[in-house]
Amino acid sequence: MEFKKRSAFINGEWVESAVQFEVTNPFSSQVISTVSDCNSEHATLAINAAAEAFKEWSKFSAGKRSRILKKWYQLQLEHSKTLAKILTTEQGKPFAEALGEVKYGASFVEWFAEEAKRVYGDTIPGHRSDLRITVIKQPLGVVAAITPWNFPSAMITRKIAPALAAGCTIVLKPSELTPLSAIALVELAELAGFPPGVINLIPSSQPALIGEVFTSHPAVKKISFTGSTRVGKILMKQSADQLKKLSLELGGNAPFIVFADANVEEAIEGCMASKFRNVGQTCISTNRIFVHEQVHDAFVSGLKEKISQLKLGDGLERGTDIGPMINEAAVSKLDRLLLDAKQKGAMIETDSKTDQGLMRNPALVCDVNSTMDIFSEEIFGPVAAVYKFKEEQEVIALANKTSYGLASYFYGRDYAQIWRVAEALEFGMVGINTGNISSAVAPFGGVKESGFGREGSKYGMDDYLNIKYMCWAGINS
Ligand code: SIN
Questions:
Q1: Considering only CA atoms, which residue is closest to atom 8 of ligand 1?
Q2: pTM for the complete prediction?
Q3: Catalytic residues
Q4: Quick one: which atom of ligand 1 is closest to the CA of 284?
């Protein structure tokens, strides 16, 4: 399959728009494609098509929806290498990581194809002897999904697979930086046999405009967004008038704590995995590394050694560990955070500067403290910032000293401490002796200003279902 489409997909038709926007490879800075640039009319057409298709799709048996989703899953696996190549070319991450993402993304489709068959209701003893109460779950209706550039494939399947499994229909607006993976996924969805209007795709370089249509159109019953906290708040304000349901997966500021009794080697491995995945451009990336003073020096020297082995380059070249950052704005932010830390007394063990476009070396910074911008801002880049601590209470307070609450990690061996710390961390996800917490079977999501809603797992389906209760009277025994 060649994946040649470059347009919108509305009501089962590929729709060219009058205007196009460019897609660039962040490694070479070359334009690799142009894509139809949808406007508010396209968005409205897509929503109307999804609303019409909902009437039929929501009435399909769960088994029928499940079989189409399974087919889509199989097609994604069959074409995984091509999908990964498309992903690397438009996003920059190393091919092996891109392939991992495509398979991770497909695993949500497989999981929710199964879950489609398990949307169970309930019976509740009535509050009078002649009453019976039953509870059913029903699909919400049209779901608008807005997905980011850092995981151009998996963030799409993670949203739309549960929605489709539940019986909802979709209008998808992928990131304008990475629309090609989205288009390829929709080409496969067409092949899998979703009826027209069930999945609609509107690439657009005008996210604010499309967001306004999504939040104001009465047929859109839910918006699922992954992206910045700033944009999440705008969508929430705009959705208030119609009280639309929202799932918001927003920014993070993950602490990574290494206690004195931790296995330092394993902690270094976990830190490398969670810090440098996707060049650090991951919402659940380790952002602040707190190391107990007793193991601080051993941890830092081991981490430095591992960092020195990372190879920068073109994601399509074998052996590349670190690809380019996504754009100039991301690079400037990283440089600003490092400069601020340096000026406030941090020790730059290895620097990030290169003279290669959007490439940044993985950097290690020590003696960091909470007055520095790098403590409170999401780095979203390849900088490991290390803090030293002495006491459990001190490090818990520091870890929680952030408006974000997405992922957190810690390494230790004392089971009582593990329970205490896991319960005290104000985050939606806690990795204990692991830096890899992502899975279709687990509920991904945050608290505080990292948003709300859960993606993946049995809980992920609930975000796309309404609960209806029926009170049956007059049942006299
Ligand atoms: C994200 O950055 O939000 C996604 C990371 C993941 O699913 O592992």
A1: 438
A2: 0.97
A3: 249, 283
A4: 2
**What pLDDT sits at residue 350?**
87
State residue 209's pLDDT score: 98
- Model confidence pLDDT, tens digit, residues 370-417: 999 999 999 999 999 999 999 999 999 999 999 999 999 999 999 999
Contact 427, 396 (CB under 8 A): no
Domains and CATH numbers, the chain: 8-250+450-470 (3.40.605.10), 254-439 (3.40.309.10)
| Binding pocket residue ranges, ligand 1, CB within 6 Å | 150-151, 226, 249, 282-284, 438, 444
Name the residue of 175, 229, 409, 444 whose CB sits within 8 Å of the most ligand 1 atoms, as the mutation to test its pocket. 444
In whole angstroms, give the CA distance from residue 286 to residue 288. 6
Going from the Cα of 121 to the center of ligand 1, the distance in angstroms, rounded, reads 30
Mean pLDDT of the residues in the chain: 97
**Alpha carbon nearest to ligand 1 atom 1, residue:** 283
Low-confidence ranges of the chain (pLDDT < 50): none
Confidence (pLDDT) at 352: 84
